[in-house]
Write a structure and sequence with these properties.
alpha/beta, 13 helices, eight-stranded mixed beta sheet, five-stranded parallel beta sheet, FAD/NAD(P)-binding domain, 18 strands
């Protein structure tokens, strides 16, 4: 992979590190990498734990395309130098829209390498609170003590699996975010449950791989992002209605582009904005690919039963389906108690909003020194935090907050 921009390569820590640092960042996806380089630029002693871009590379369906537009697919760095376009120029990758998953994964790995982030690939087994900060225990037995912890662990732990499918064996049901290879289903009968991007794109990929596919969705008709193209072709008026991130419909798109403003909106209205901005819908380039796929809308599965080598599905209209596999494109539910690396007694001391942490300035929680960024922050700062585009606001806000408080602590010590 090209390294032509001339910034030193990343330092991969393999042996025991020093046992103290200012900040531990858990997660090396877009949010963790971005936070790490912003904190480093503020001369904060930061250590980022995780395998760079692991969730994107290993748990999302191969062959998928990013829902976000190109300019909303940049991982933020302090100088805005390491953009998707910069990666394409450095690596000789031909620009394309939409952006492929494979290109985005390589871009994220290049981003980490170019900025020289210190990445520790070892697994964190548990984080707990101590009097002076946090005790971070690694699976190899090492203990790292840190004044602050930033959780950027993504959505891998939050898969939504409807209870009706709970009795099916793992070989007969899986979630879109489990990393099953699409090629495994060639020649198989697959029921895809859901009406969002992950469900619909998975259905298209399965059909193209030679599977017999049916999409089963509760909503009466599928919805498509960007269906009203003319609203995007009105010049200055379109700019007033839509932000470059293109999250949400006209008007809402412009509002959610400013997470700081969203954070001051009363929770009831903020939730309505969030739900409307990310309701189940597919990208405008999917309908043509789904034309040969059976789509059953306004229907849901009432029961699912394993019959040896196949699954029997009973739908609410009394009809039956026999399939080889059920693929759940049912999204996720944020609940930080499902992060198994957080000690239960630590989670119990964090104020929560139905699973989401209640966050203040700098993405801080009610537990001093503990921060959450990414999807876990969307209840407090709005739906932009579900997307890569949110890395710019999150990293700047986080780094500024931590830098300011570090300076205040140093000043107090000296005085």
């Amino acid at each position: 992979m090209s390294n032509s921009i001339g910034v030193r390569s990343a330092k991969i820590v393999k042996g025991p590190p020093s046992t103290d640092c200012d900040v531990v960042v858990l997660g090396a996806g877009p949010y963790g990498l971005s936070a790490g380089v912003h904190l480093k630029a503020k001369e904060i002693d930061v250590r980022v734990f995780g395998e760079p871009m692991n969730f994107w590379a290993n748990q999302m369906p191969k062959g998928m395309l990013l829902r976000s537009p190109r300019e909303a697919s940049n991982i933020a760095d302090p100088g805005s130098a390491f953009t998707l376009e910069a990666y394409e120029a450095a690596s000789g990758t031909k620009p394309a829209a939409p952006v492929s998953l494979e290109t985005f994964v390589r871009y994220g790995q290049w981003f980490q390498q170019q900025l020289g982030s210190q990445i520790d690939r070892r697994i964190i087994s548990q984080i707990n609170r101590e009097s002076s900060g946090f005790k971070v225990a690694l699976e190899d037995g090492t203990i790292v003590r840190s004044r602050r912890v930033v959780v950027a662990a993504g959505i891998g732990s939050f898969q939504r699996k409807p209870s009706v499918f709970g009795q099916l064996p793992a070989l007969q049901v899986s979630h879109c975010y489990e990393g099953r290879k699409i090629s495994e289903f060639t020649g198989k009968r697959v029921a895809v449950i859901g009406a969002g991007q992950s469900a619909l794109e998975s259905a298209a990929l399965l059909h193209e791989a030679g599977a017999e596919v049916e999409v089963i969705a509760r909503i009466p008709a599928l919805r498509w992002i960007g269906k009203h193209k003319w609203l995007h072709d009105l010049g200055p008026l379109s700019s007033a209605l839509y932000s470059k991130f293109d999250v949400g419909p006209a008007g809402i798109s412009r509002l959610v582009a400013y997470p700081k403003i969203v954070s001051f909106i009363p929770l009831t209205f903020k939730d309505k904005i969030r739900v409307r901005a990310v309701r189940s819908a597919g990208s405008k380039w999917l309908p043509a690919r789904l034309a040969p796929v059976t789509i059953s809308t306004g229907r849901f599965v009432q029961s699912a039963r394993s019959l040896k080598d196949e699954v029997q599905l009973q739908l609410d209209d009394g009809t039956e389906r026999r399939v080889d596999h059920v693929l759940l494109g049912t999204g996720y539910d944020v609940d930080i108690s499902r992060y198994n690396f957080l000690a239960p007694e630590l989670v119990a001391r964090v104020d929560r909003l139905n699973g989401y942490p209640h966050l203040g300035s700098g993405f801080s929680t009610s537990m001093p020194g503990l921060h959450f960024i990414g999807a876990a922050a969307a209840r407090s700062f709005g739906p932009l935090l579900y997307f890569v585009a949110g890395t710019e606001f999150a990293s700047k806000e986080l780094a500024t907050y931590i830098s300011r408080h570090k300076a205040e602590r140093v000043s107090n010590i000296r005085s």
